[in-house]
């Protein structure tokens, strides 16, 4: 027989973890292993183990039995030949079965979906419609889990309390303790005729189209939380949260650097030497930029406020445009003669090695880095 995994280790919590810590650990693992997020067979097996561990440790009575017996048999309410679990319950107050019936309503799980947007949509923000595979309230039973015309009945074994009094013979004598009712499983009611459409769960699987407002300035990989837009919980419990992970598609022209956009424009030798005005296409439409006389490759023109919206602030970043001076490779006779006359008109210059200029190479290498001045 395979060794039963330790439920605390499966969830990654300590044995004295609080109910909130157990719930948090389970939801964190479920988001990563849920079949809607990770369809691999390995993830499916892990998800089953995590879910079962949570079912045991989230139920006070099952957890008490599990801690006392340390086995799946104890957790499932199996026989304890020495009555140690009941002794602990009687003397140390574990179990909590006398606190009243458990609610059939449980909070829904969180759900993660993905959507793709363009860089331009990331700059300004956009609304996207995403299809999600979720759970909604059953229209047939309206979340009760009972077939139409019927309703959950009060359990005759526990009279609606969800627990029963048991007497166990042990080494210390006969001990009385309260345990989860074996007939209603602690709910206090029994669904005699479950709803056919939902199987008594009070919810059914469904596809939904949800509109997501993606704010300007969102970056690749960010998640948007939509509270209460996830699946309905069992027993028509409150909805979980929906998380939308955004993937920003690469742009053919612009790159992202924080809140700034980066691009390169090619200019001719003549325009770089004499100066000119160029019209470039931006996400905000055509914009004129000035090319100063004597412009060199790697020089930067900053267009204020044409970058991405600041996600947690006001305004927008900048558009930084690097100039790349293009040297012609094919000249006709007239062009060659003009360049020769230009060269002859300048002071004679013989190429030669000069002292290494770190600043020049740094500017070419990091032409998009911000100026410290």
Number of strands: 15
The low-pLDDT segments are: 70-98, 357-361
Structural class: alpha+beta
Our count of helices gives 10
**Biggest sheet character:** 4 strands, mixed
Radius of gyration: 35 Å
Helix and strand succession?
HHHHHHEHEEEEEEEEEEHEEEEHH
Task: Summarize the amount of helix as a percent range.
Answer: 10-25%
| Form type | elongated
What share of residues are in beta strands? 25-35%
- Intertermini distance: 72 Å
Mean pLDDT: 82
Topology (elements, then pairings):
Layout lengths: L6 H5 L7 H15 L7 H17 L2 H10 L2 H4 L8 H9 L18 E7 L1 H6 E13 L15 E2 L8 E8 L2 E8 L8 E2 L12 E13 L7 E4 L15 E7 L6 E3 L2 E9 H6 L1 E7 L2 E7 L8 E4 L15 E8 L6 H13 L12 H8 L8
Parallel strand pairs: 1-9, 11-15
Antiparallel strand pairs: 2-7, 3-6, 4-5, 8-9, 10-11, 12-13, 14-15
Helix pairs in contact: 2-3, 4-6
